[in-house]
User: What shape does this take?
Amino acid sequence: MLVSFKALLSLLFLSSTVSCSLHGLRHGHGGRRQRTCVIPSQYKASNGTADDSPAVAEAFAKCSVNAVIEFSEGVDYNILQPVSAKNLSNVAISVLGNLHLPQNITAVHAQATSLYWFTFAGPSIDFIGTSNITTGWIDSYGQAWWDANPVNGTGTAARPHLLSFNTTNGSLQHYKSRKPIAWNVQLVGSNITVTDAIIDATSTGGFPFNTDGFDVTGTDIEILRSVIYNGDDAIAVQTGSHNVLFRDNTIGYQSHGMSIGSLGQDQTQFANVSNITFDHNTVISAVYGARFKSWIGGQGLAKNITWSNIVVYNVTFPIYVTQTYVNQGSAQTQLQSGGVTGRVNNASVVMEDFTWANFTGTINTFSPGDRSCVTDPCWYNAGLPNLTHTEAIIIECNTDTSCTNFSTENIQLFPQNLAPPSVICLNATAELNPALGFACRNATFVPL
Assistant: This one.
């Protein structure tokens, strides 16, 4: 039986003028927060029609330093215009009420001068939600966007990202996002901790394209105890990221898993990622579990990457590596400049010291993939013409020198049809990968 998002939450969580004062005494990494700005709402009085964005902008202007900015508990707010606050310092953003984006596509497009609907930047920012699952949500009304996706399209045009969170010594606590239009959170900076987040991008109609959970570019970043049900990467660790920990999380629905990349799209840039750990996570009904993706002709180094203690249930590709990735989506989905077609295969993002340890669970044999296919073969089957969907591990190294020191240990993954698990493996040579743990060939998976 599949685990619904609502059932999962029950299991996890049932056990105009801004009023300013000087009694906000919370402390952040930057010291004492001496002022509090409580944002008023016109939502109820206007029967849900008034725009509270001007009051929000006023609060962020008045309480931008050593302050607390509060959305009151249980109160609804219409955020009908993008909010940008890039000069914050030692600020807590207390989201105890519900924030509503425009409920129709036209209204969002009318404000489409901003890539992000919320932009927060500066040192020592703490986004603090609430453990009360009935309030503290950002409602983006993404279902209308997903249903409007054109036939054979990969997402409606001009979709905004939800949140850019750029800080040092900050946190994101109890962040809750319901039906995001597309991308959720871009984390940028250093020493950031995310705890107890909930992202619900489950759809009753069209596919929720590009609903990434967390796109990470930074150092010393932790994402802990969170639930991410979405239609793209639960986490995508991007170039320039080091010392990242993703632990004790539950991801699923149509998720594209715990990903490194994509790296190397811009062939003029040296991609660099190191010391990334995914540990004690559960993956439910996703396309991918542990995933690495880099482009043909890219350059760079990904080093010391570990996925360990991973439980998968009904996952199409539990362990997946490709150094020949191509993003077939629209221009809006491309992370970097660089050609999508006609790329010269003259370089690779080198992979060193990769470990997959203690994987258990089931491979989706009966209904593999998701509902995002717009091509034949489907994008996630491209280059893999002989799939049986019994594959526990797929490793595609671009050359016989681009993958070094790969290690697998205690991989207990079983196809749902009870056939023997298999592997697809290219160019991970025994000489450079003595601890690979199986023979690199296309065959039944037999641990050595």
Q: What stands out?
A: The two ends are 33 Å apart (CA to CA). Residues 20-25 have pLDDT under 50 and may be disordered. The longest helix spans residues 53-62.
